[in-house]
């Protein structure tokens, strides 16, 4: 009543009437009804509840016993406390975390017999020691050290490991850029966290930068734990610390081709890179040209001011794009070094070239050298779907323009040129050209095989479908349907399929939802429903359903 009185004045008559009324018993305030969900309410009602909700009913909710929490992939004590293993691990640097116990546990639990070890060249001097430890404490296994160059996380070589008969791949010193549910064999990522002298780092920063300063701290995955550990100490010292992120990378992690764009609202005073070398640092410098950058080398324990020739680089890239616009024949390079190449991005550029009537040739290369491309003098422009930094850093050394996918789409008038002097470095970001977006085809394929009980009589054809999942089903947006159709028709040519091209095109058109009512789930359902028919028509009878 008091709450109503506060909002509405009923006059003096109401006050007199209220004073003459007999006193009412005090009203106990009831708690608000808790939302319990439809399923819980229905269950309570079936047990004799008569009220409109569980709280109003006499139903008794019997608490279910809580399951004891489990730690997935927890290393058992018999491995962690093995004195012989601890002694063997002393052969490795104490400040390098190679996660030997975790690796041994993974090998044993997976029942692996042949394990591939892949690491960058800087860690290869420890490869034989790691191999000896693993074979000693996992009797019966065979290890294989992969010696091909490994520049970054994009170079994970699960294809080669599978071809060599390995059933587990341990990839060192890079983050999970390629998810473990995408790799062709079981994969374990070991970040190789490196512990450093943080007291020297903190003292160096306090001596060189006055407070208050806004510092954005980034680094490679090896020093990611250190970046987060020094944050609180620096903030207590008076600094404002920003640890930026570009998804799907971790906070503070950058790659040579992928780094966050720092917002102007944060008013960042400087960028601090924690790590050795300049390759990764240059990525965030290119993406944030107006912010001063510093590098703290944890090995030499030196802090240096770093600069970059932004105007020269951007001028060279603009000249290459301008020259490419007049090229009469293009060459498209798909990188085969690990997972560098992206068939979806390749198909995107191919489709645009087809629309513009420009001929092109495809080339598969693990490493790209000027002399190799010079042998094909009729090609007037090259596009490499491998590493963007190859074009940015070394493009001037090639006899013909060597474009990144982003630059190629600018030359083909599919994208706008960068503005405000900021060249984008988001290749493996969520919207970058290095990633594949959409509903994974391998998941849809599994549903289709399960529901139609298809019998695959030609494993080669099925492998091609899986290998080209980015091109066929990687991007579910309607505007990208022509690119996936083009890959299916290309697949028919590769396999020598006698199937009808027009029939495949008709089936594909029937499966495409209109843009107004499009959704990923709807597209996935239609894809699964017609997948067996596509396979049957494309392969001309090589694959048959058991129901037919």
Automatic annotation (TrEMBL):
Q: Which Gene3D superfamilies match?
A: Diphthamide synthesis DPH1/DPH2 domain 1, Diphthamide synthesis DPH1/DPH2 domain 2, Diphthamide synthesis DPH1/DPH2 domain 3
Q: Would the keyword Iron-sulfur turn up in this protein's UniProt record?
A: yes
| Record EC number | 2.5.1.108
Which prosthetic group or cofactor does it need? Answer: [4Fe-4S] cluster
Name a single GO biological process.
protein histidyl modification to diphthamide
Pathway in which the depicted protein is active: Protein modification; peptidyl-diphthamide biosynthesis
- Name the record gives this protein: 2-(3-amino-3-carboxypropyl)histidine synthase subunit 1
The segments labelled Disordered in the record are: 1-56
- Which organism does this record belong to? Neoarthrinium moseri
Origin: domain of life = Eukaryota
The UniProt keyword set, sorted, is:
Iron, Iron-sulfur, Metal-binding, S-adenosyl-L-methionine, Transferase
Q: Which GO terms describe its molecular function?
A: 2-(3-amino-3-carboxypropyl)histidine synthase activity; iron-sulfur cluster binding; metal ion binding
Catalytic reaction equation(s): L-histidyl-[translation elongation factor 2] + S-adenosyl-L-methionine = 2-[(3S)-amino-3-carboxypropyl]-L-histidyl-[translation elongation factor 2] + S-methyl-5'-thioadenosine + H(+)
Which family does the similarity line name? Belongs to the DPH1/DPH2 family. DPH1 subfamily.
Q: Cross-referenced Pfam families, in alphabetical order?
A: Diphthamide_syn (PF01866)
Q: Which InterPro entries match?
A: DPH1/DPH2 (IPR016435), DPH1/DPH2_1 (IPR042263), DPH1/DPH2_2 (IPR042264), DPH1/DPH2_3 (IPR042265)
């Amino acid at each position: 009543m008091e709450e109503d009185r506060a909002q509405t004045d009923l006059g003096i008559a109401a006050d007199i009437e209220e004073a003459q009324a007999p006193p009412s018993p005090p009203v106990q305030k009831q708690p608000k009804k808790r939302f319990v969900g439809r399923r819980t309410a229905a269950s309570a009602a079936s047990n004799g509840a008569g009220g409109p909700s569980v709280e109003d009913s006499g139903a008794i909710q019997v608490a279910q016993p809580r399951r004891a929490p489990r730690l997935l992939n927890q290393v058992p004590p018999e491995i962690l406390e093995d004195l012989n293993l601890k002694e063997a691990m002393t052969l490795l640097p104490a400040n390098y975390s190679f996660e030997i116990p975790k690796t041994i546990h993974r090998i044993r639990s997976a029942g692996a017999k042949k394990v591939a070890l892949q690491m960058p060249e800087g860690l290869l001097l420890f490869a034989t020691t790691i191999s000896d430890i693993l074979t000693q404490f996992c009797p019966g296994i065979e290890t294989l050290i992969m010696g091909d160059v490994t520049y970054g996380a994009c170079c994970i070589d699960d294809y080669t490991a599978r071809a060599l008969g390995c059933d587990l791949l341990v990839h060192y010193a890079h983050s999970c850029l390629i998810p473990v549910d995408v790799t062709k064999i079981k994969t374990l990522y070991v970040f190789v966290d490196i512990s450093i002298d943080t007291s020297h780092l903190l003292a160096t920063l306090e001596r060189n930068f006055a407070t208050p300063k806004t510092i954005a701290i980034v680094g490679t995955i090896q020093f990611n734990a250190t970046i987060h550990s020094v944050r609180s100490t620096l903030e207590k010292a008076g600094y404002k610390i920003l640890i930026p992120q570009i998804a799907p990378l971790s906070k503070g992690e950058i790659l040579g081709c992928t780094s966050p764009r720092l917002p102007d609202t944060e008013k960042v005073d400087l960028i601090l890179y924690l790590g050795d070398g300049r390759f990764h640092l240059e990525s965030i410098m290119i993406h944030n040209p107006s912010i001063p950058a510093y590098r703290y080398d944890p090995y030499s324990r030196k802090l240096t001011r770093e600069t970059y020739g932004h105007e020269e680089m951007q001028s060279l890239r603009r000249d290459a794009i301008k020259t490419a616009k007049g090229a009469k024949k293009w060459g498209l390079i798909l990188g085969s070094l690990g997972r560098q190449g992206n068939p979806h991005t390749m198909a995107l550029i191919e489709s645009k070239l087809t629309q513009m009537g420009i001929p092109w040739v495809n080339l598969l290369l693990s490493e790209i050298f000027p002399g190799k491309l010079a042998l094909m003098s009729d090609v007037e422009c090259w596009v490499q779907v491998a590493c963007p930094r190859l074009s940015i850093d070394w493009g001037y050394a090639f006899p013909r323009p060597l474009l990144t996918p982003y630059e190629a789409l600018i030359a083909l008038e599919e994208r706008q040129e960068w503005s405000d002097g900021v060249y984008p470095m988001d290749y493996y970001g969520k919207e970058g050209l290095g990633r594949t977006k959409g509903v994974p085809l391998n998941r849809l394929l599994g549903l289709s095989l399960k529901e139609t009980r298809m019998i695959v009589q030609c494993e080669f054809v099925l492998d091609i479908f899986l290998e080209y999942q980015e091109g066929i089903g990687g991007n579910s947006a309607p505007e990208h349907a022509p690119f996936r159709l083009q890959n299916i028709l290309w697949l028919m040519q590769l396999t020598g399929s006698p199937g009808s091209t027009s029939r495949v095109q008709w089936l594909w058109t029937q499966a495409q939802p209109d843009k107004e009512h499009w959704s990923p789930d709807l597209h996935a359902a239609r894809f699964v429903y017609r997948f067996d028919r596509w396979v049957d028509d494309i392969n001309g009878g090589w694959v048959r359903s058991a129901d037919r």
